[in-house]
Design goal:
Length: 349
């Protein structure tokens, strides 16, 4: 990997160089009831709107490559012939500015599923190929447990990664595209003192993690505890609202519906992101529902992320961003669910 240093004031210059493309980054979206600032990824029009000191965005950047609702194809009647149209999207390069390590690792996990042969998802792939991603280091919040999931740093999945060191940025260059763009900035080689500052910043950040998840033997323990009464208790609390999947950077399950125009001259296939917690997620033709209880649906989500995905890819489908717990109206968090499985009981909250 190539490391460089540039002065913090050069960041605006980098922004301007990339502004010929659509830029997306964290912006302030108001405050919650407790007066805490809220952030989300939005299109950037001014450098001043970019809030790189954000703690966590409400939604993941997933909406730019896995839109909540997307037309995957349409059929139009022309005379007696049907004209088929498929648009994979991804015509316009997109710069994602300031993704944290967890969100970049989430993309790497999605790539394993959605870009895998023999049936890669062309819609996801087209958008992913047009992305230029700038990572930025973060300060963990009380909800973060990325360190437990091994996703608190990145080695690939972005073009460059920035770590602020006082008046400088420590830059990790991970693509030739990034290397060539950065040639337009005033860069210098990091020296021994810069390496030391980088390591000290990393150690200081490690000390800020307050939430941990014990992941050792977790897949095996989930197998052993498949019939644990703990699942019923979490199911009793779960509202089956599906919010956790909507905000999760690694959830990719979807449903497909076909929409036909009233005059029958056009039809379209619509793919919509879905959640395995929703009541009808496992309902099939004929009306049978394989998971009618909220407890089995919630359990399924945990087994997919921490059991099935681990078996397939030797890593969990969770980056420890904490969004699902932060946004859950029933206060169901991953650390608490996993701890309760190990304990064999749910503590009162
Ligand atoms: S766990 Fe929470 S966010 Fe997820 S479906 Fe249940 S109530 Fe909704
Ligand atoms: S399951 Fe929750 S903590 Fe894990 S990646 Fe998804 S939103 Fe983040």
């Amino acid at each position: 990997m190539i490391f460089k240093i540039f002065a913090a004031r050069e960041l605006a210059h980098l922004f301007e160089l990339l502004a010929v493309n659509r830029l997306v980054g964290p912006v302030k979206k108001g405050q919650n009831a407790q007066g805490k600032d809220l952030y989300d990824f939005e299109t950037l029009y001014h450098f001043e709107d970019l809030q790189l000191d954000y703690d966590q965005t409400m939604h993941a950047a997933k909406k730019y490559f896995l839109p909540h609702r997307e037309e995957t194809g349409s059929f139009t009647l022309q005379g007696l012939e049907w004209q088929k149209e498929v648009d994979y999207g991804g015509h316009h390069p997109l710069v994602l500015f300031g993704l944290h390590a967890c969100d970049i690792n989430a993309l790497n996990k999605l790539d394993k599923v959605l870009l895998a042969e023999p049936y890669p998802n062309q819609f996801y792939g087209a958008k992913r190929a047009e992305m230029f991603i700038i990572g930025h280091s973060c300060q963990p919040t009380p909800a973060c447990f990325c360190r437990s999931m091994g996703t608190d740093s990145v080695l690939h999945g972005c073009d460059l990664f920035l770590t602020p060191l006082g008046d400088d940025y420590f830059v990790e260059i991970m693509s030739s595209r990034a290397f060539h763009i950065l040639e337009n900035l005033n860069l210098r080689e990091p020296d021994h003192e810069d390496h030391k500052r980088f390591q000290e910043a990393g150690q200081a950040r490690q000390g800020l993690f307050t939430t941990e998840v014990e992941t050792s033997d977790l897949s095996k323990i989930l197998d052993m505890e498949f019939d644990s009464p703990v699942w019923s208790e979490w199911g009793r609390r779960c509202l089956s609202c599906g919010t956790c999947a909507q905000v999760c950077p690694t959830c990719y399950c979807y449903g497909v519906e076909e929409v036909v125009a009233m005059n029958m001259a056009r039809a379209a296939k619509i793919r919509q992101l879905y959640s395995c917690n929703l009541l009808d997620f496992a309902e099939v033709a004929g009306g049978h529902n394989f998971r009618p209880k909220s407890s089995t649906r919630l359990k399924y989500r945990y087994y997919h992320k921490h059991r099935g995905f681990v078996e397939a890819f030797e890593e969990a489908l969770c980056v420890g961003c904490g969004r699902c717990g932060t946004n859950c109206l029933a206060d169901i968090t991953v650390p608490e669910v996993i701890a309760s499985i190990r304990r064999g009981e749910v503590e009162d909250v």
